[in-house]
Design goal:
The protein is α/β, with parallel strands linked by helices. It folds into two domains: 240 residues, Type I PLP-dependent aspartate aminotransferase-like (Major domain) (Aspartate Aminotransferase, domain 2), CATH 3.40.640; 131 residues, Aspartate Aminotransferase, domain 1 (Alpha-Beta Complex), CATH 3.90.1150. Helix content is 37%, strand content 15%. Helix 6 links the parallel strand 4 and strand 5.
Length: 378
């Protein structure tokens, strides 16, 4: 079954009662049992809900995994993954992870005894260099947020297996349409559903997939016990969004390539980060493991003053947090998504005060470029 077919049908059968082609929104907290100890597979909606189950099965199928667990946000999903560890365990993370991931690592989980090293995981030697006897997890983001670095999925998964590390990939930027880390040997894949999978900037959610039954059992226990689960209505919104994931990602990618090529020609822009450009340091890796380069670009205007001036002028491009919607969203990482990272650390990893991140939408690309051009030239 092809990707688009799975996106539309996996986990979703016509409603057996009415024949409705769309999965119903099951707005119920509890379920009547036929007799003591006998139910129809559902007992309480914190534990499971048919609408949420359909979404979990759908994304697991798209990622080539066996199990899926949906949470109330991407950060709730990442928090659940960290609960798989014990105090004293060491985690290796990509240096350019989302600012919220950095924040929960440094300001929450370190207080509970976890240890973290943030390294350039696009350089596999740097991963191996920081492995310790207490290392238990490799957590990568590829492409990274916001400098769009690419990590070799096969190579990093091999390092994790060799050193008995639990391997986790945040696949939010790429989506399963562009890459499927499970197929490269990763144990766990995590998504912010809020972004490309939903694609319409109208819900929050997170999802974890795995093919490891023991890991899935632990995560389902955490999902039930902590209770940060996705609501049925948000699950339904995301199911609706996923049906157009393939066509949306194709258009995001086509538009982003044209915008990146245009930005490369602008004298005000000192650097463009996009894996589809041949001068990107990991262009060949991206070509090998992705079936497209996605809709995320970052570019540097050289200073905070230039970035501020530029962002005041944009009109079509929405100055906002988040990404992955059908509309073009533009962000200043240093003061918005990655403000939790100390300034000196941001500078080290390329998040300068002049860096702009753009989630290229699916509008007519000529209109996107016209807006960027007007803003640069005023």
């Amino acid at each position: 079954m092809g990707f688009s077919t799975k996106a539309i049908h996996a986990g979703q059968a016509p409603d057996p009662t009415t024949g409705a082609i769309m999965t119903p929104v099951f707005l119920t907290s509890t379920y009547v049992q036929e007799e003591l100890g006998k139910d129809k597979g559902y007992a309480y909606s914190r534990v499971s809900n048919p609408t949420r189950t359909a979404l979990e099965q759908n994304i697991a199928a798209l990622e080539g995994a066996n199990e899926g667990m949906a949470f109330s946000s991407g950060m709730a999903a990442i928090d659940a993954i960290m609960h798989l560890l014990q105090p004293g365990d060491h985690v290796i993370m990509s240096r350019n992870v989302y600012g919220g991931t950095y924040r929960i690592a440094r300001l929450v989980w370190e207080d509970f005894g976890l240890q973290f090293d943030f390294v350039d995981t696009s350089d596999l030697q740097q991963i191996e260099r920081v492995i310790k006897p207490n290392s238990k997890m490799l957590f990568i983001e590829t492409p990274t947020n916001p400098t769009i670095e690419i990590t070799d999925l096969a190579g990093s998964a091999q390092i994790a297996k060799k050193n008995k590390l639990l391997s986790v990939a945040d696949n939010t930027f790429a989506t399963p349409f562009l890459q499927q880390p499970i197929g490269y040997g990763f144990d766990i894949v995590v998504h912010s559903l809020t972004k490309y999978l939903n694609g319409h900037s109208d819900m929050l959610g997170g999802l974890i997939v795995t093919s490891d039954k023991a890991i899935a059992e632990k995560l389902r226990f955490l999902q039930k016990s902590v209770g940060g689960v996705l609501s049925p209505f948000d699950a339904w919104l995301c199911l609706r969004g996923i049906k157009t994931l393939a066509v949306r990602m194709k258009q995001h990618g086509e538009n982003a390539m044209q915008v990146a090529q245009w930005l490369m020609k602008q004298k005000q822009v000192s650097k463009v980060n996009y894996p589809g450009l041949e001068d990107h340091p990991q262009h060949e890796v991206a070509k090998r493991q992705m079936c497209g380069f996605g809709g995320m670009i970052s570019f540097d205007l050289g200073s905070y003053a230039a970035a501020t001036s530029f962002l005041k002028k944009v009109q079509l491009c929405a100055l906002a947090e988040s990404l992955g919607g059908v509309e073009t969203i533009i962000t200043h990482p240093a003061t918005m998504t990655h403000a939790a990272i100390p300034p000196e650390q941001r500078q080290k990893i390329g998040i300068t005060d002049g860096l702009i991140r753009i989630s290229v939408g699916i509008e007519d690309v000529e209109d996107i470029i016209a807006d960027l051009n007007a803003s640069l030239n005023t």
